[in-house]
Design goal:
Length: about 280
């Protein structure tokens, strides 16, 4: 694969809004619930307005959260269970909720700039209409652990980055740049102009995921839990790749399939560690 040999695969991103990335998207959650997500928000330097603890809650992670909050001068209040659940709308807050300043999603151009700044080939994850917050959270968590440079989500017909997703990601959303776009197909075409190769996961794909070259700029597409990648998105992928299934079932969970391919890319790239996202 040599994008430089194909002039149609090069060129700067257009300034137009055709891919839905010229402006900031809707704000993410204003509440973060759960010990690990709150701790990761603190570690990432997220602006936290107030921490609410369940009265009497204890534990090693709780004490680490308290210490970091005190060092940053964040207000800490105690609360009963009813108020805490009212804030988080989640029965499993693990005794702590952070009230945070609203945060906007990243721009696509920010995701593209990040690998350039580090002098490496870009590695992005495109999620085509993932609807289950747990799958979305798990995919973002794996993307962060596997050294991906960013995640791209469709603006419509998909799960957004809600408190449930933040919690399912174990706080990885605090470190992973996430861009929301209005048109996945147009975004893929813009990525191709930047030299990216698009690998779509599909059970009928004619290439096994371990056979591909992940050294250049690559975007991995994972489709909807039930329907997979949409037909038009498939048509714009450079390769449709499959994962061998050796049992009686015909598919893998979306987050598991995505994890296998992301870690194959990390392996092929020599397990390159990346500095923290900022």
């Amino acid at each position: 694969m040599n994008p430089e040999a194909d002039p149609d695969r090069r060129g700067a991103l257009k300034a137009a809004d055709s891919s839905g990335y010229s402006g900031r998207r809707r704000s993410m959650q204003s509440i973060i619930a759960g010990r690990k997500p709150v701790l990761e928000a603190l570690r990432a330097g997220r602006k936290i307005e107030q921490l609410v603890f369940l009265t009497g809650v204890q534990g090693k992670v709780i004490e680490e959260i308290r210490l970091l909050a005190e060092q940053r001068g964040i207000r800490i209040v105690q609360s009963d269970k009813q108020r805490l659940l009212g804030l988080a709308d989640d029965a499993n807050t693990q005794g702590v909720v952070a009230i945070v300043a609203a945060r906007s999603t990243s721009l696509l151009r920010d995701l593209l700039a990040l690998p350039r700044q580090r002098g490496v080939a870009g590695l992005l994850l495109i999620l085509d209409e993932i609807e289950d917050p747990r799958n979305l959270g798990a995919l973002v968590r794996t993307a962060e652990c596997a050294g991906m440079h960013g995640v791209i989500l469709p603006r419509h017909h998909a799960a957004g980055v809600t408190p449930a997703v933040v919690k399912a990601s174990a706080g990885a959303t605090e470190h992973m740049p996430i861009a929301e776009v209005s048109n996945v197909v147009q975004t893929i075409e813009e990525l191709k102009k930047e030299g990216y190769w698009i690998f779509g996961l599909d059970s009928a794909g004619d290439r096994i995921y371990t056979e591909l070259d992940y050294d250049g700029p690559v975007a991995i597409v994972v489709g909807n839990e039930g329907k997979g990648i949409r037909r038009l998105v498939k048509q714009h992928c450079d390769y449709l790749v499959s994962i061998p299934l050796l049992g009686r079932l015909h598919s893998l969970n979306a987050s598991v399939a995505g994890a296998l391919v992301m870690y194959e890319a990390a392996k092929k790239r020599g397990w390159q560690r990346v500095p923290p996202h900022t």
